[in-house]
């Protein structure tokens, strides 16, 4: 055949350590129909400071693949909420080949067409809280690329018509496809008039949606005569691919005929007409169809391609029957908030002699990022004392309506489904499917009576069931200890839970590492009450007539207390304002405390400096509230002003300022050491686990440093007499005791200080 190659790529994205599904990077691809092979080229590279990160450690990268919807992953092995179905996916781990780059290749032969999703993440880290901009962070970037090779002009088989074909010696196989419309209960593929060097050396393989694989449904025509392959309960509204493959090593040409027969379950006494109009066989809505669900046409057959000849007789199927399918009304309330209402519902009557079948249509792409919820509640009073059990089978793309009562199951060899059951003892049953595949979901309800020999059909008992089906963003809105987040990757939307207070799991229901109520209360009290340490700086500032500084310290103490009361991850939370307002005021108060303290140490009184600091800090916080230099810049600017003021006083007095060793030894050095220790704890020690007590220590140290660094009040006084000379040990001592302690400003009192070495 003729192959066409398509190429798709995505922009590189930075990967994050896994905490929840909200921390993964999701990539969306679309694979066209008739694709023979799909090759994903997975490129990963390191960056640090805008250059290649050769010094970055090697961290494994896990990539997940799933068709139809995003993968439901659980790398931390947490517990899922009750009644949750977990769809499968494929995962692989990338290892590093080069110091700063690695490439992985993932091939999928005959992939399913439609949407494919890739999810990638780094391993979970220790949860260290790093200051933004303190050092160049190692970044791990991931870029997937997709190359698909698809066949064009695949021969189409028309049901009921014979197609003649021959396989030349240099060829190995022939590929066909046939469209299976709705209300088809059986697909029968048959190879006729097979002639070859060794009888009929052919393999017959059939697969839905994509070309067959080596493990697809197959039949060896050498061992079966006639060579017929039947598939019960095929997927509706999909292409089925038929591969006729020659055995290896068979010489010569092999000629054969191939035909397909479809059984129409909507008309038990009639078989599917050999040809349907395109509108009837492709996308004719159920509401516009005939009583059987399809508008069957009597138009003449088309021009027969691929050697199609005469009709073959189709045996009528009297044992196959499908029941009417009741549609549901879609009511969209919000993103991933959709209710499916049943006409004349929500109470559904399940008769004893036939199942009740409903269809739920999920829109492509739009609905696969949420959670499909199904709830069955049995009205026990409708059972009339009988031991009735109502079974529900939820299947994708085809309803399962088995009449076998011995084994109640929702699965066949080619079809998987979900089973629900309700009875008088357990009258409620729920099912949750995160990230469901889109398309049609069919729910079949049957009522059976339990006996000593198993389940048997009930007599004269019509069970009544309350049925509720809806689409939600997250499971139970992530509960009390989680937040449901709406995420976006390019034009695709999906929702995921972000858990807090040690809770984990898909719906934040795993409490294996959860914080107890006492622990949450203790952490909240520590973070809030540690701000009481600002009371001594306030008292000292008021006593020294630093009223502006005292007001700033009170502002900081107030907003820091209520910000941390609102910032808690658990249930011990108290917010007096919006979170963003409290955070801004807390950060502004902390930086303003540093600013006014340093300006007070410089003994500069102009109010313009305080206003300048407030404006600079507000601008810095608005630009980046967590940026290092946006916060450190104004503080260094204030320290520069203080250094200039101290240098000017030193030159003016011709000795060091502050001039005495007592001020340095008992106030400045201890205060500077305490402040430096607080900064080191904040920048290098804080993690998510120790945050509540390390940050409380930070509050204590910062407030304690202000107690030592805030200078005493400058008191005007008269002319003071000389004091006796004293010698210091390696330091120049001033005779004036008050000036020695920094109590006198040179502009207020003129004192002749006599200093000795």
TrEMBL record:
InterPro entries: EGF, NGX6/PGAP6/MYMK
PROSITE patterns: EGF_1 (PS00022), EGF_2 (PS01186)
GO cellular component terms listed in the entry, alphabetical order: plasma membrane
Annotated keywords: Cell membrane, Membrane, Transmembrane, Transmembrane helix
Keyword Transcription recorded: no
Transmembrane segments: 514-534, 546-565, 629-652, 664-685, 691-710
Domain EGF-like, residue spans: 497-508
Membrane topology type: Multi-pass membrane protein
Domain of life assignment: Eukaryota
Compartments, as annotated in UniProt: Cell membrane
PANTHER family found in the cross-reference section: FIVE-SPAN TRANSMEMBRANE PROTEIN M83, TRANSMEMBRANE PROTEIN 8B
Similarity field: Belongs to the TMEM8 family.
Protein name: TMM8B protein
Provenance organism: Galbula dea
Gene that encodes it: Tmem8b
């Amino acid at each position: 055949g003729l192959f066409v190659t398509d190429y798709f790529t995505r922009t590189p994205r930075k990967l994050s350590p896994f905490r929840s599904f909200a921390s993964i990077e999701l990539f969306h691809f679309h694979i066209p129909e008739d694709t023979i092979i799909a090759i994903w080229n997975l490129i990963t590279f390191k960056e640090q400071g805008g250059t290649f990160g050769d010094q970055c450690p090697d961290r494994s990268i896990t990539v997940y693949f799933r068709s139809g919807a995003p993968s439901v992953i659980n790398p931390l092995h947490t517990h899922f909420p009750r009644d949750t179905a977990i769809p499968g996916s494929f995962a692989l781990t990338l290892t590093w080949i080069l110091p700063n780059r690695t490439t992985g290749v993932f091939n999928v032969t005959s992939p399913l067409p439609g949407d494919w999703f890739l999810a990638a993440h780094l391993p979970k880290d220790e949860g260290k809280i790093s200051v933004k901009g303190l050092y160049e962070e190692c970044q791990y970037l991931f870029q997937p690329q997709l190359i698909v090779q698809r066949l064009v002009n695949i021969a189409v088989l028309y049901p009921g018509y014979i197609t003649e074909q021959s396989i030349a010696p240099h060829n190995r196989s022939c590929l066909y496809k046939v469209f299976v419309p709705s209300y088809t209960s059986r697909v029968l593929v048959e190879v006729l008039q097979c002639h070859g060097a060794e009888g009929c050396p052919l393999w017959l393989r059939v697969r839905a949606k994509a070309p067959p694989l080596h493990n697809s449904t197959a039949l060896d025509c050498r061992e079966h005569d006639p060579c017929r392959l039947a598939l019960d309960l095929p997927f509706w509204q999909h292409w089925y691919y038929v591969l006729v493959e020659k055995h290896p090593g068979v010489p010569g040409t092999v000629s054969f005929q191939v035909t397909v027969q479809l059984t129409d379950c909507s008309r038990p006494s009639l078989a599917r007409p050999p040809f349907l109009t395109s509108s009837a066989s492709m996308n004719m809505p159920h509401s516009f169809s005939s009583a059987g669900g399809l508008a069957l046409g009597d138009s003449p057959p088309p021009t027969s391609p691929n050697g199609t000849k005469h009709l073959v007789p189709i045996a009528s199927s009297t044992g196959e029957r499908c029941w009417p399918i009741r549609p549901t009304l879609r009511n969209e309330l919000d993103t991933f908030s959709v209710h499916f209402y049943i006409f004349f519902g929500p109470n559904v009557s399940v008769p004893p002699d036939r199942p009740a079948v409903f269809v739920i249509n999920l829109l492509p792409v739009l609905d696969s990022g949420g959670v499909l919820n199904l709830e069955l509640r049995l009205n026990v009073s409708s059972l009339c004392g009988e031991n009735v059990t109502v079974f529900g089978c939820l299947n994708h793309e085809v309803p399962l309506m088995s009449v076998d009562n011995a084994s109640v199951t929702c699965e066949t060899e080619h079809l998987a489904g979900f089973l629900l059951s309700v009875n008088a003892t357990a009258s409620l049953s729920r099912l949750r499917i995160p990230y469901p595949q889109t398309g049609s979901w069919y729910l079949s309800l049957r009522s059976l009576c339990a006996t000593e020999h198993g389940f048997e059909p009930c007599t004269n008992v019509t069970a009544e069931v309350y049925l509720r089906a809806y689409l939600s963003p997250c499971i139970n809105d992530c509960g009390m200890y989680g937040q449901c987040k709406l995420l976006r990757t390019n034009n695709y939307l999906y929702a995921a839970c972000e858990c807090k207070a040690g809770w984990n799991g898909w719906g934040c229901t795993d409490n294996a590492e959860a914080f107890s109520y006492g622990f949450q209360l203790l952490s909240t009290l520590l973070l809030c009450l540690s701000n009481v340490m600002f009371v001594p700086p306030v008292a000292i500032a008021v006593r020294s007539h630093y009223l502006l500084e005292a007001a700033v310290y009170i502002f900081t103490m107030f907003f820091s207390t209520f910000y941390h009361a609102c910032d808690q991850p658990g249930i011990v939370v108290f917010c007096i304002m919006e979170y963003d307002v409290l955070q801004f005021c807390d950060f502004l108060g902390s930086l303003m405390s540093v600013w006014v303290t340093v300006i007070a140490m410089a003994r500069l009184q102009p109010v313009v400096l305080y206003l300048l600091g407030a404006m600079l800090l507000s601008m810095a916080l608005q630009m980046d509230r967590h940026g290092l230099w946006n916060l450190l810049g104004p503080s260094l600017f204030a320290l520069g002003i203080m250094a200039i003021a101290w240098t000017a006083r030193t030159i003016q007095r011709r000795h060091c300022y502050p001039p005495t060793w007592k001020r340095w030894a008992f106030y400045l050095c201890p205060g500077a050491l305490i402040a430096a220790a607080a900064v080191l704890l904040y920048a290098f020690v804080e993690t998510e686990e120790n945050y509540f007590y390390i940050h409380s220590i930070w509050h204590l140290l910062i407030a304690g440093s202000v107690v030592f660094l805030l200078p005493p009040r400058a008191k005007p006084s008269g002319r003071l007499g000389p004091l006796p000379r004293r010698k210091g040990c390696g330091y120049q001592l001033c005779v004036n005791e008050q000036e020695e302690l920094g109590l006198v400003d040179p502009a207020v009192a003129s004192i002749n200080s006599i200093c000795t070495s």
